[in-house]
Amino acid sequence: MRFAAASLRAGLAPSAATWVLAQQVAVRGLVAVKFLAIGRLLGPAAIGSVSVALLAVAIAESLSDTGLAQAVVQGRDAPTRDELGAVFTTLVARGACVALILVALAPFMASQFHLVGSLLLLQMAAALPLVRGIASPGYYVAQRERRFSCIAAIEIGAALADCCVGLAFAFSGAGAYSVLIGMLVGEALKTTVTWAALTPRPPLTPRWSGIGHYIGFSRWIWAGSVVNLVLNQFDKVVVGKMLGPAQLGAYQMSSRLAQMLLADAAIALSQYLFPTFAAHHREDAKRAATLFRRYLAIGACAVVLVVLVLRAMASWLFALVLGPQWMPAVPLFRIFVVNMALGALIAVLVAYLRARGDARTAAQASALQVVVLVAVVPVALRQWGVVGIAWGMTAGLATAGLWMFYRTVKPR
Q1: Rounded Cα–Cα distance for residues 228 and 354 (Å)
Q2: pLDDT tens string for the chain (412 positions)?
Q3: CA separation (Å) from 102 to 50, 109, 223?
Q4: Which of 132, 164, 171, 375 is the most buried (most CB within 10 A)?
Q5: For the purposes of burial, counting CB atoms within 10 Å of the CB of 239, is it exposed (0-12), middle (13-18) or buried (19 or more)?
Q6: Cα distance between the two ends of the chain
């Protein structure tokens, strides 16, 4: 009985992985309910229009990624209030600049991606980076200190608000706008709670100096973000530009459904593993390496099993969840299941590499993936269309994963 009680207390400790798992199940479950319900209601073309708006946000945020959040988590010493103030000033400025640029470029994006009458949708999406930018950097300190229970409460609350508001607007006839309205409400709630519940709170006085020691690490995060921009959005840009919003909607929904069912669990696990690996590495590098190998082996076995099951159930799953209008996307889903399995393993590799201060290897792997995509996708698009693009992504992911794995086992 005492052992069981001790195990329960350990499982519910603020730093326990239980909270990360609970956060992942709840948040991704709510996101799944929202997107699947709205996708079934609106169809591929509307989802494609929203995807273009979110694509613009992702491009701008990746190009302007400062890497400061990861630097705060990874750094050997805890940040002071003045350092947090400089981090906050930088992130607010970044969010405001990104929002203004997106508003200015909205007409160009609408014309390039064949979005007739969707200018307001693109301009609405510009508010997302601004709302995210004014969140308290105390959130990153909470990640560093592994206060996973607090982080889980914030993320679940924001996801619940996003889901409920988005569905309410969708069923009231707001169309594609309902997706963005829900996201804005969820991000606004998250930003508010980070200031109300998390400490330390940075001073609000603008401050631009004092974080130079983060640059050496964060520059590689920025480099990785820029390269990942090409990796994560290149295929969507090609599909949206060449094939239009309906094909982009099918491509995006297939990818998102595969991500929900497979990769999101690994992404959530990496949120636990990055600060955990970092904490172990600060104390004993060999123990951190042993822990990494254990998680990677378990993850590899798990994703193989899940891939086999999902590929076998693909047609039934689409017919049940999304309806007959989405059935042409089933072949894409079967490919994306493989891609997300590779992405799940890569998430573990990246968490370990960054935890030991080797963000450069992750950036190099992303660069290799870009080379593969540039070489493969144009030919694959001509030969097999959108399916060829999906298989091109598989080749790139496999290349990146093999490079990172090689770097983890090579003696430093």
Answers
A1: 15
A2: 444 444 445 556 777 778 887 888 888 888 888 888 888 887 777 777 788 877 778 777 776 667 777 778 877 778 888 888 888 998 888 889 888 988 888 888 878 776 766 778 888 888 888 999 899 988 988 888 888 889 999 999 999 999 999 999 998 988 888 988 999 999 999 999 999 988 888 888 888 777 776 766 666 666 666 666 666 677 777 777 666 777 777 787 888 788 777 777 777 777 778 888 888 788 888 888 888 888 888 888 988 998 999 999 888 888 888 878 788 888 888 999 999 889 889 988 988 888 887 778 887 888 888 888 888 888 888 888 878 888 888 998 999 999 999 888 776 5
A3: 14, 9, 21
A4: 132
A5: buried
A6: 46
In angstroms, the CA 372 to CA 397 distance is: 9
DSSP per position, 175-217: TTHHHHHHHHHHHHHHHHHHHHH-SSPPPSS----S-GGGHHH
Distance CA 123, CA 102 (A): 7
CA dihedral of residues 168, 172, 178, 183 (deg, nearest 10): -20
Identify whether the C-beta of residue 268 lies closer than 8 Å to the C-beta of residue 20: yes
DSSP 8-state class, residue 77: S
Compute φ and ψ for 407, nearest 5 degrees: -70, -30
Half-sphere exposure of 332 (CA within 13 A, CB side): 25
Q: Rounded distance, CA 145 to CA 275, Å?
A: 8
Specify whether the CB–CB gap between 246 and 114 falls below 8 A. Answer: no
> Rounded CA gap, 333 and 313, in Å?
11
All residues at 6 or more sequence positions from 111 whose CB lies less than 8 Å from its CB, including other chains: none
The per-residue DSSP string of 302-340 comes to HHHHHHHHHHHHHHHHHHHHT-GGGGGGHHHHHHHHHHH
Size (the chain), residues? 412
Distance CA 49, CA 315 (A): 25
